[in-house]
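Annotators were shown the component list below and the corresponding predicted structure, then asked to write short factual statements about the assembly.
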Amino acid sequence: MTTTTYREALREAHREALSSDPRVFLMGEDVGRYGGVFAVSLGLLEEFGDDRIRDTPLSEAGFVGAGVGAATAGMRPIVEVMTINFSLLAMDQIVNGAATLRHMSGGQLSVPLVIRMATGAGKQVAAQHSHSFENWYAHVPGLRVAAPATVHDARFMLAAALDDPDPVILFEHMLLYNMSGEFDDAARPVDLERAAIRRSGGDVSLITYGGSLPKVLEAAEELATAGIDAEVVDLRALRPLDVETILASVRKTHRAVVIDEGWRTGSLAGEVSARIAEDALYDLDAPVERICSSEVPIPYARHLEVAALPRVELIVSAAKRVVGSDG
Amino acid sequence: MTAEVSRERGVELLREMMFIRRFEERCAELYSAGFIRGFLHLYVGEEAIATGAMRALSPEDNVVSTYREHGHAIARGVPPGAVMAEMFGKVEGASRGRGGSMHLFDVSRRFYGGHAIVAGGLPVAVGMALADAMRNERRVTACFFGDGAVAEGAFHESMNLAALWNLPVLFICENNFYAMGTHLSRAQAETNLARKAAGYHVPSEVVDGMDVLAVEATARRAAEAVRAGAGPRFLECQTYRFRAHSMYDPDRYRPKEEIEGWKRRDPIARLRDSLCTGDLIREDELRALEAEVEGDVEEARRFAEAGSLEPVEDLLRDLMTPRAL
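Structure shown to annotators:
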């Protein structure tokens, strides 16, 4: 076991990938000289040179598309998009390009591209830097989508993504970068199609991913003091969803709360709820609840931002409601 | 014509342009007859560009194209039967019938599509060239697009990246003066497209896209510069489509005189007349060539018609790469 931060785990993952495979390179805005807007790539330019740590101009469509092309041509690019809000400028290249090329060419092309981006709110950076559009990407056939929510996954998901022959998008919640934790070298590799049970319990399944995981774990501890034994499911894989793990947990606990920082309408939480309704409805002892962000652009003022986001007390009360409604 | 041409090469160029022309006309007929559906964008009038430019490339070079790409695919050597079968939606098609007219792929000939988001292929071409530059491979990535693409942000981002990183991309703009139905002058404040590329320090040239020899010579020079490591080049080939944008287009926006004026510059008639004047081809040889072309087009159609449909059970095939267990 090694103790480190989420940021350093990501950096170490990059260092390992760059050292072990000459086809791997990193490009994005400010990844080189600046060291990455969240300092993930700090020091990598000095270590690997500017051919492999490429600062790009502010042209998301251009450099994400260049990643698609370089991957098609046999490289293993890691493209860092500064934030998920900026990724909308590259969405054409991701959705019309990377996601379609293999199928549309009758299997002739592969796009082994990894795109990383910061997502989520909590830093008071307001309505153009704080959103959670993971569901938009998880909606798209042809993409693989995952969200490392632990230091261990931050350390090992990148390698799994680079090993994958198809385009992979990794979402890093911006509140996680400073988080400390452990990774276990013996527990690699990470499977990009499997959810993880972060806490085992028998009374209610709390299903979440990404930046909400620490909140959910905190809520689970609080519920424990109230005598409620919560199971915490970290989806990790947002596309494809690990429905098997979700259903197994719900069949055990008979109750579910889905926590998702995205907006409720059309959310991943909605998809998870639908899967439960389709395949485990009669295992449920209570309706599924969802804790999502308020349906507003995330505001700047601290109290409003807090009010807009999923919080521990909301998760706790939702869990108590579904447990309390046990007939 | 701008250059002298040998009989052999002249006839070869003529034959290829005639083939593309007849192939496209046949596509229109087959569309009307219901064999081809979806969008169909024909290359009639623009044949000199694909025919000329493709000769400047080697089999090791990459080609990235647009949705008006039958001519590019054929000039690149993609079997016409596979192009036609693709439009018939058959599994023998270049893309197993998944792409149709707009999405032809043939990786064995380094023909990388078939991109139907205007300017969407440019960043991809830049990335392919980046891969070659990083591996020190002396390959040119040729990227075709139209005047409409020049208005897109992706064009400007791609020019900048290619120039900034000195990448081996040959940008070939087929300026037919209309982005679907909107004339260049109604859409772009700067109508000199080569000047826009030059603004990114990409050396640029304007060439008569109705003159196959001029296109070939210019493309050859540009491709050699790119191959030698001199960075990207931009060619603006001025041309005209003799038919509407697509089969849905009633073509209400182009003056008849304008269309007739450009038809007088027909690249096929031009080369043919020049070969006749120079006594490089006889009238009976021309007729034989026409018959030969007709036969080859018919063979492509027969191949397409005889093709089979991909089994529906394969619908999800090739969405993701199968995972090793």
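Statements collected:
1. The two ends of chain A are 44 Å apart (CA to CA).
2. The mean pLDDT of chain A is 97.
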